[in-house]
Specification:
The chain has 407 residues and is an alpha+beta fold. It folds into three domains: 92 residues, 2-Layer Sandwich (Double Stranded RNA Binding Domain), CATH 3.30.160; 93 residues, Tyrosine recombinase, N-terminal domain (DNA polymerase, domain 1), CATH 1.10.150.130; 185 residues, Intergrase catalytic core (hpI Integrase, Chain A), CATH 1.10.443.10. The chain is built from 16 helices and seven strands. The strands form two sheets. A four-stranded antiparallel sheet has the order 1-2-3-4, covered by helices on one side. A three-stranded antiparallel sheet has the order 5-6-7. Strand 5 and strand 6 form a beta hairpin. Helix 9 crosses helix 16 and helix 15 packs across helix 16. The radius of gyration is 34 Å and the shape is elongated. It starts with a helix and ends in a 13-residue tail after the last helix.
């Protein structure tokens, strides 16, 4: 006999679960706890199944009968009502949970676990923040190219063309991660190629003319600033490492007896450990500096906060105080200076120079070959370059050579 609203209201829980049928497989299940749950029994693919249709009185008798009709219609079409309901629930969950902000946070966490540099993660987090108001809470499956273009154009309107380009790239990374984890189907940023202003490429300024480089070295060796800054400038000239690699250096990375500096993978651009030979002049600078900063975690501690390294602007600021404009030379420019002058000397294998600059390609065999085949040459090149630097800087002979053994 079909159920009525009066009968439903009169249902009282008992000591055990019991059911009251409405016909056509629909029934209400009354539990000892007092909950009253709608269920639909049906067969699909030769198997008996049960479909949950809500609870009473939240789901009325009239509404649950409509749902029974919808389920029967699906069965007539050869579709399983439970599978359809599960798919619909998954879509609702995705719309609520799989937002751009959630997936972006997952991606950054994954990259942190993979050992990406902290500065890289911070930069990406900042870029994603620029689009947070527009995209953050939006379900990632529903975001369109037009919606992504909005924050990009806002960044671009401030003249930050490079930031807009990088923001598009990072948003694209989030979408590709969502695709890989089955939470998105397409990357809308692909359709935005060409939609942004192409930033004009400006290379970091560097002095590569030997005469002007001689003048620069004279200025560096005559610098009268903080001890840490003086040492760092000289070491950049001698070692031509990336400024960030040097600025964030810690004392355990240096073996002054073996005259080597091991830069950890997390801090190198290529994300792999890089060992540099230290010429005697660099060892002497570091030994002198160790007497002053050896008790601090960083080789070049900040004077304001000794537990932290000098800031990224310290070395460029020192060059500005020496009279060199940003358009003339930067701390990163020492790499270009060394590369140009070492190649111009004609004394060194080009691949050895590239290996010393940590420009070696990603191929495992090629990397191993460079480490083995060019280490001795890199050691000789480091000593030769230091001799040149010292001769140019103040005309004095170089420090005594350090005994070297092949690694």
């Amino acid at each position: 006999m079909p159920l009525t609203d009066l009968k439903l209201r009169q249902l009282k829980p008992g000591a055990a679960v019991f059911r009251e049928s409405d016909g056509g497989g629909l029934f209400i299940e009354v539990r000892p706890s007092g909950s009253r749950l709608w269920r639909l029994a049906y067969r699909f693919g030769g198997k008996q199944k049960l479909l949950a249709l809500g609870s009473y009185p939240e789901t009325s008798l009239a509404r649950v009968r409509q749902r029974r009709l919808e389920a029967k219609t699906l069965l007539q079409d050869g579709r399983d009502p439970a599978a359809v309901a599960k798919a619909a629930a998954e879509v609702r969950r995705a719309l609520e949970v799989d937002t751009f902000a959630t997936i972006a946070a997952e991606l950054l966490e994954k990259q942190e676990r993979e050992g990406k540099a902290g500065a890289t993660i911070s930069k990406k987090r900042w870029l994603i923040g620029l689009a947070a108001d527009d995209l953050g809470e939006r379900p990632i499956r529903t975001i369109t190219a037009a919606e992504i273009l909005k924050p990009l154009q806002r960044v671009e309107s401030d003249g930050n063309y490079e930031s807009a380009r990088r923001l598009r790239a990072v948003i694209g990374q989030v979408f590709r991660y969502a695709i890989a984890t089955a939470r998105a189907d397409t990357d809308p940023t692909f359709g935005l190629r060409g939609a942004l202003v192409t930033p004009r490429v400006t290379h970091r300024a560097a002095i590569t003319d030997r005469k002007r480089f001689e003048t620069l070295l004279g200025s560096v060796w005559g610098y009268e600033g903080a001890l840490e800054t003086m040492a760092a400038l000289k070491l950049l000239a001698l070692l031509y490492s990336r400024p960030g690699e040097l600025r964030l250096a810690r004392w355990p990375e240096f073996d002054l007896d073996k005259a080597t500096w091991t830069i950890p993978a997390a801090r190198t651009k290529m994300r792999r450990e890089h060992v540099k030979p230290l010429p005697a002049a660099a060892v002497a600078i570091l030994r002198d500096l160790h007497a002053h900063t050896g008790n601090y975690p960083f080789v070049f501690p900040s004077q304001l906060s000794p537990g932290k390294p000098i800031s990224e602007n310290t070395l460029n600021g020192a060059l500005r105080r020496l009279g060199y404009l940003k358009s003339e030379h930067t701390s990163h420019g020492f790499r270009a200076s060394a590369s140009s002058l070492l190649n111009e000397s004609g004394l060194w294998n080009r691949d050895a120079i590239e290996a010393e600059l940590a420009h070696v390609g990603a191929d495992q065999v090629r990397r191993a070959y460079h480490r083995a085949a060019y280490w001795d040459e890199r050691v000789r090149m480091a000593d030769w370059w230091a001799t040149e630097i010292q001769a140019i800087a103040h005309g004095k002979p170089p420090a005594p050579s350090v005994d070297r053994k092949p690694r």
